[in-house]
Design goal:
By secondary structure, this protein is an alpha/beta fold. The chain contains 11 helices and 15 strands. The strands form 4 sheets. The chain has a 6-stranded parallel beta sheet, with helices on both faces. Helix 6 links the parallel strand 8 and strand 9.
Length: 345
């Protein structure tokens, strides 16, 4: 089928945009031509990990929209030429956990993540349950985030059992933390508190629905959250960055009977400590993997389409795939107020 350009990890903390063969879809798979991609913090974490066997030929990236270019045998729900978005986490749709409705806990998939989307073409496994058609009246920029950060950010509130009027604190206002803040507002939270020190992200947190944003470089977030909640704590605290201090602060700030939810990627930390003392007891602690699947994608797109959820302000830069080395540099160094970079072929 020819060749394509793809971002391939070549060493720990490094990658190159290389010319590689366009993959051929196997049974149940779809080959998708990328129309819009982006860079996620998890991509940076994957670069930081040591090389492992097979990565020499695996391209990076897990958030994209595209057009179906070719279908493997057995795919029945999609057609070539359709605009699609896909889950960043794969699900087989048939294992016991999938049948129970817990697609994030799928045991039948051959790989957890659908990677390789920072490329001109990429493969989507189990296409019938991991793809969704993009409605004609929605742009790629409106729906790309349903593939990962919107699903994860909103999913944190769902996993926390959010109810109307609940108080929520979101620790760190990077792109996925901002989605959690927007999700809290969309689900009918009462007080929404962000924790962030970067001025551009503080401003965006307020735009996404935060009533208060605490600067952890100026104020102890736990102390301030307790002050704002009359020394009760929040119903749901979301840890959105993946460091031990933020996780511990989120647990401490959660009220008795409340829930701490973490979707942070803790990198190479071998252990994650819990704070003990009077703030420790009678709480739930939950971890989250991005909820995947066609139905999930469709529901989130409906929230964008009909529910007045607009995450497009998170797009701060636009670059070509050929500029991806520079794009990673900007993203890793948080240059120029970057949040999400729209990558186009």
């Amino acid at each position: 089928m020819g060749t394509m350009k793809a971002a391939i990890k070549t060493a720990q903390n490094d990658f190159e945009l290389m010319e590689v063969p366009i993959p051929e879809p196997g049974p149940g798979e779809a080959l998708v031509r990328m129309t819009l991609g982006t860079i996620c913090g998890t991509d940076v974490h994957l670069l930081e990990f040591p090389m492992f066997p097979g990565m020499e030929t695996q391209s990076l990236g897990h958030e994209s929209t595209g057009v179906v270019a070719k279908l493997g045998p057995g795919v029945s729900r999609f057609r070539e030429g359709e605009r699609v978005v896909m889950s960043c986490v794969s699900t087989c749709g048939t294992c016991a956990n999938c049948q129970r409705g817990d697609l994030s806990a799928c045991t039948g998939r051959t790989a957890m993540g659908i990677t390789g989307m920072q490329a001109e073409y990429f493969i989507v496994p189990y296409a019938d349950v991991n793809l969704a058609r993009i409605p004609d009246d929605l742009k790629d920029e409106q729906v790309l985030f349903v593939s990962d950060i919107m699903s994860t950010g909103f999913g944190a509130l769902e996993r926390g059992g959010i109810k109307a009027g609940d108080s929520v604190a979101v620790f760190a206002q990077g792109p996925v933390g901002l989605c959690a803040t927007a999700g809290a507002r969309a689900f009918g939270a009462g007080m929404v508190i962000g924790v962030e020190s970067v001025p551009e992200r503080v401003a965006m947190a307020k735009r996404m629905g935060a009533n208060f944003v605490i600067n952890p470089k100026e104020t102890d977030p736990y102390v301030e959250i307790m002050r704002l909640t009359d020394n009760v704590g929040v119903d749901i605290a979301v840890e959105a960055v993946g460091t031990e201090p933020t996780f511990q602060a989120a647990v401490m700030a959660t009220k008795l009977g409340g829930t701490t939810v973490s979707f942070g990627t803790y990198g190479l930390l071998p252990l994650l400590g819990l704070p003990l003392g009077p703030t420790f007891f009678h709480k739930k602690i939950a971890f989250l993997l991005c909820p995947p699947g066609t139905d999930r994608l469709v529901r989130l797109m409906d929230m964008v389409r009909y529910g007045n959820v607009d995450l497009t302000p998170l797009w701060t830069h636009r670059m070509k795939l050929a500029e991806i080395k520079r794009a990673y540099e900007m993203f890793r160094n948080r240059e120029d107020g970057v949040l999400k970079i729209a990558l186009t072929p």
